Amino acid sequence: MPGRFSNRGIVRIAGIYLCSAAICTALATHGKAQFVDLHVYRLGGDAVLHGRNLYRLRYVNLPFTYPPFAAILCTALAALPWGTAAAAMALANCLVLPVILYFALRLPPVSEHFSGPARWKLAFAAAAAAIWLEPVRTALGYGQVDLLIALCVLFDLSLPDEARVKGMAIGLAAGLKLTPAIFAVYLLLTRRYRAAAVAATTFAATVAVGAIAEPDSSARYWTVMFASPGHVAPVQDAENQSLLGALTRALHTTHVGWLWLPMAGIVALTGLALARLAGREGDEAAGFSICAITGLLISPISWTHHWVIAVPALLLAAVTVYAGAAGRSRVATLACAGAIVVVAVIGWVRLARVVPGSDWLRLSPAGVATSEVYVVAGLTALVVAGCAAYRRLSDPAGTMTVTMTARPAGRAPWLAKPSPLLRGARSR
Fold first, then answer.
1. d(CA 68, CA 175)
2. Running DSSP on this structure, what letter comes out for residue 300?
3. What is the tens place of the pLDDT at every residue in 141-157?
4. Which tens digits make up the pLDDT trace of 46-61?
5. Could you say which of 117, 206, 250, 348 is the most buried, measured as most Cβ atoms within 10 Å of its Cβ?
6. CA gap 130, 204 in Å, rounded
């Protein structure tokens, strides 16, 4: 009887999510988006099928900017009729979102508080709201693959460290878009050497396949385009929510390499150090979240739809705050919850960032402020993570407790006593 009740609950919440997803997809694909990136994917696949120059073709004014291996995979989309390809991409993105959140909830220590059915319920319920966040909406509207990339990363991280295939999905994701490669570095820093080696080997294999199938395009990509972020689009575009984009708009010039490179280096080192500390303590949820935000900040181009990989971090943060509420002061709990709500609202409401291209470097102070919201939120998250790490490290007793108990139990000390609601969810 309890199992049937749980299954009925999952089906009911899944139905609510599918209705929400259908409405959101219809709205997201109606307008300027209209699967423009899916057109670009098909253009790349068609170039491979017909032997055309991969990086000289354009859909309207949009080039194919991904590694040659991605174009090889896109041949499947190019072979389908347009209507079928669009429907398949929209359906895949809608189905993937709750699965991403489910895998996120499998990351320790959050995983300790949920049974399988309870995890699926929360994943579908959260997805019904998360699909309206701007990163998800834009990914749906453009027909992007960012949700599939996030799935690869979270699937890999949710596998046991002993799994022989751990790291393969991350390497594959890096072969499609380079930014997920930061998670291979994360595996290396947390001493999961075999998984890191599997990720590196898989990525190298994607490069080799691309070089064999498209030697000229591969040579052009890895020698010219790879090191030139401007080949994707103007870095000052207000939709580019990375450190580089934020600096170009704030300083009103694209010549910011002298400042961006050291800042990106500091953010990268800080973020990876914090992710390593969290991962070594058994807090994979925090390790993933910090690593995802760090990668988005330091990448030269981080469009708003790239930020879908940070959406699971919102859910993980909310669960962590709720689970630790009993052990925190009321003010601290409300402050954490308020911060999560603010970040969610930033993603939910599309701020007025889109302005004519000629004005991106001449924004008013208010325009600059509204064009930097994701970057500010990401930097704030790293500061909060750093403060929490400092408090733990400055408390010898707390550090000893973490070292002795976190990795075997997969539970961070502030989640050691789950709230009554989470205990109930686990029992169901």
1. 9
2. S
3. 999 999 999 999 999 99
4. 999 988 888 888 888 8
5. 206
6. 34
